[in-house]
Every structure is written in C-alpha cells, then in structure tokens.
Amino acid sequence: MTLDFWRICISNFLLYAAVWMLLPILPAQCYLMGMNTQEMATSFLMFVAGMIGVGPLHAFLGDVFKRKYVLLLFTLAVALCFSGWLMASEVWQVMLLMLLAGASFGIATTAGITIGIDITQSNRRGVGNRIYAFSGALGLFIGVCCSTTVYLMLGFNNLIIISLLLFLLSFIIETSIYVAFRAPVGVGVFNIDRFFLPLAWVPAVNVCILSFGIGTLLNLLPPYVWIGILMVAVLTALIAPLTRLFVKLSHHCQRGTANTTLQLASQVGLILGLVEGERIANNLLLGSITILLSALMFVIATWPYFKQKRVRP
To answer: I want to staple 265 with a disulfide (CB 3.0 to 4.6 A). Which of 91, 154, 208, 280 is the partner?
Structure first.
C-alpha cells in the first residue's frame, strides 16, 4: 500500500468518472444531432466493439512498451476522442470517435490494472486488486450521479470541459507514478492474456446480465431516476467481492486478467443496457426482470460453478 499505489487508484477513479460523466448523456446528444435510434445504438456498439476488439493487443502493448507510457498515451487518446464531440457534426464522425474512444479506454484501463498489481507488494496483491477495482467502480458511480445534473445546469459543452479536466488530472497523477522497468518476455501480438480469463466465463456472463439490467435503468426519468442511481450504487458495492470471486478463478499471475474480465463484463453490460433503455418504452420492467434473472443465475449457476472451478483457496 505505497503512495504510488494510491496514486494509481486516484487516477483510475478520475478516469472512470470522466468517461461515465459523459456516456449517460451521449444518447440524448445523438438525438439532438439528428441521429435516429438505430444510428445512436450503432454508435454505442462501436464503443463496445472498440473495447473488445483491442483486447487481444493488451498483453503485447504492455510487453513491448513501457506500461506507464501506454497508460499515459491512451488516457490522452480517450480524452481527445470525447473532446471530438464538440466538433462532430456527421454520423460517421460520431461512430469513429466512439470506436476509438472504446479502444483507448479499454487499453488505458487494462494498463492501469497491470500497473496497480505490479507496484503492490506480492503479499498484498489480493486486497490491492480489490481496492483498485473499487476505485474505478466508485468513479463510475460519481460520474453517473453528476452526469445529468451537470448537463441540465451547465449544458453539454461545459460537461465535456469538466470531463476533460478530470482526464487531465488523471493524466497528471499518472505521470507521478514510479513503475519499475520490466524486461519484455516476448508476448505474441494477439493474446488474450490480461484481457479475458476463460475460466471466469460464467460469472462474466452473470455480471454482464446484471450490468445490462442496471444500464437500462439509467434512462429512467424523474421521479424514478433514483432507482437507476441506487442500482449503480449496488453494483459499486459488489465490485470488491466480485473481484475476489474472479481472482479465485485465476492461476498464478492472472490477477490482472481476472480484474480486466470483470471490468469488461460490467462495462459492456452497462453500455448495452444504456442503449437498450433508449430504444424501449418500459425500461423499468426490463431492467427489473433482468436484474432478478441475474440474481437467479448467480444462485443456480454461477456460485456452484465457482465452487467447482476455483483454483485459489
């Protein structure tokens, strides 16, 4: 629990807050730009495609280049992509920005997870991993809470500016983190290491379904909007125990991969739910049913699977 560890946690908190201050508002902004529902949905699917598509490159980038530089570069890349919304006027521009933002966010978060584990003492990496994961979840919660309020009070352009300030602060803190040199080990260009943990596929699906249900509730209008916020708070509280569950399904040196798998499942679910919530009329019913189904899946399938497949005590 060094000073550098707390710095990486704070920078991760700010990164997630910056991204999730914007994402809940972007569907409405798409409509204001004249985009239809299908175009809006496709734009968000491009963000998801970017996050998933770049996954197999994570291990290679972290091996060939200094991990700190990867984190710094792609933190700036995410910020530049979202700042492009101030100038975007065509549908293809929005889709390209969302694709690049998703890819950059995916690489930045994975690089941060790797650094967070590597700078933690070996005998404290379990709790360090959970604290780091919670920092991102807390940033997501704060970003979602502030998103609509800031948008209604200050407008979209000022929301972008505030988000960019959070990105900048995250970047500045990242520059102060010391990361020891690690010699390359010759990882192949395409590798799912540090991206997806195959043994955790059942809980990953479960988390994705839960997050999807919560994402649909983020579109609720007053006075029901608090339901979505409350469920995001529940997801935030669950991140630490879920991180522990995923890590117990990982072998040696796979803590980062386990954390990344959890983050990918929760982010993809939230974004898909956010999009679907914009497309349907009764998102309260859909969200409630989906959350209940995810809880049922955990009891019937995920927990028995975990007890059978866990590789750590």
So the answer is: 208
Which pair of tokens denotes residue 188? 């192949």
Q: How many CA atoms lie within 13 A of 159 on its CB side?
A: 26
How far is the C-alpha of 152 from the C-alpha of 255, rounded, in Å?
40
Say how many CA atoms lie within 13 Å of 130 toward its Cβ: 15
Three-state secondary structure call for residue 155: coil
Tokens at residue 226, please?
């608090």
* CATH (domain of 102): 1.20.1250.20
pLDDT at 220: 77
Structural domains counted in the chain: 1
What is the rounded distance in angstroms from the CA atom of residue 226 to the CA atom of residue 247? 32
| pLDDT value for 185 | 63
Decide if 56 is inside a domain.
Answer: yes
Successive 10-residue mean pLDDT values, the chain, 313 residues: 89 97 92 90 94 84 82 95 92 95 94 86 80 94 92 92 96 90 66 81 96 90 80 94 92 83 94 87 87 97 95 81
Angle between helices 156-175 and 125-154 (to 10 degrees): 150
Say which amino acid occupies 187: V
DSSP state of 301: I
The answer to whether residue 243 sits within a structural domain is yes
| DSSP H helical ranges for the chain | 3-22, 26-32, 37-53, 58-64, 67-83, 91-118, 125-154, 156-175, 201-217, 225-247, 255-279, 283-297, 303-309
Domain that holds residue 9: 3-179+190-309
User: Is the model's pTM score more than 0.90?
Assistant: yes
* Chain position carrying tokens 């249900």: 213
| pLDDT value, residue 263 | 92
Residue type, 240: A
**Has residue 184 been placed in a domain?**
no
Q: How many CB atoms lie within 10 A of CB 266?
A: 27
